[in-house]
Amino acid sequence: MAKKKSFFRRAWKWFWNLIFSIGIIQWIIAILIAIPIWFVYLTSKIKITNYETFKKYRKKPAIFVFWHGRSMMLSPIIAVGGMRAYAVASKHHDGRIMAKLQRLFGLRPIYGSTSDGGLSVLRGGLHVLSDGRYSMCISPDGPGGPSLRIQDGTMYFAKMSGAPIIPVCYSASRCWFMDNWDKYMVAKPFSRINCIVGEPVFVPRRASDEEFASIREKLENYMVETLHQMDGEFNHPEIQQDVKASAYRRAKRERKHGGQI
């Protein structure tokens, strides 16, 4: 009986993976996701701090970074602000759905990740930045964590291209958090949405290992502190660092089956 259940479970998973790999299905899902995002944006009160920096770099070589769990409401802000940019997207069908969603908000995809297949992403990103007309949007702790940690890829983009890193974060007064590793924030309609655009951070091309690590640490601390401060204003629970997607899924399975974390 157990083997039969396992077989049907694998067959069911294979079926839905096949369905979600179809391009037209991905577009339909992307549109269905985009509609409520726009509804939330249009019914909410949006406040953007330091919008001048966003306007200055929205059509220039720059690397806009945001935590993986805080991307939802940045999409319409980017679209309304007229940003010309590329975003890193996973090659998995989930990532391709998200890439199509981002296309609906004006972002073009570079497939890969800063941790898996990072070399091709680095090449593609440097090509985009060297064009002189586009920015890049990256989640430095994606796609699988550890949460609220900046991976090397983002820093190398800045070091090798000379483009500034610009941290961005938002929080919403009315929201719920998904039960996943990054505690993805889903904003609700009629919210107060605060967005903070940080000052540009440059990584010198000849930066030593110590200087490179120092810049990353300062940027990471700023982004974490900003997130916690913004969430604290709305009395949201504090998002934890160093949570990995694989470990979080394993812990959920153990809880479900009565195991210990």
Summarize this structure as a short list of keywords or feature phrases.
single chain; 261 residues; alpha/beta; Glycerol-3-phosphate (1)-acyltransferase; 7-stranded mixed sheet; two-stranded antiparallel sheet
Note the topology:
Blueprint: H1 2-20, H2 23-43, E1 45-49, H3 51-57, E2 63-65, H4 74-81, E3 85-89, H5 93-104, E4 107-111, H6 118-131, E5 135-138, H7 152-161, E6 165-172, E7 175-177, E8 185-187, E9 192-197, H8 209-233, H9 245-256
Helix pairs in contact: 2-5, 6-7
Task: Give a short synopsis of this structure.
The chain has 261 residues and is of the alpha/beta class. The protein has helices spanning 2-20, 23-43, 51-57, 74-81, 93-104, 118-131, 152-161, 209-233, 245-256; strands spanning 45-49, 63-65, 85-89, 107-111, 135-138, 165-172, 175-177, 185-187, 192-197. It has a seven-stranded mixed sheet, with helices on both faces. The chain has a two-stranded antiparallel ribbon with strand order 7-8.
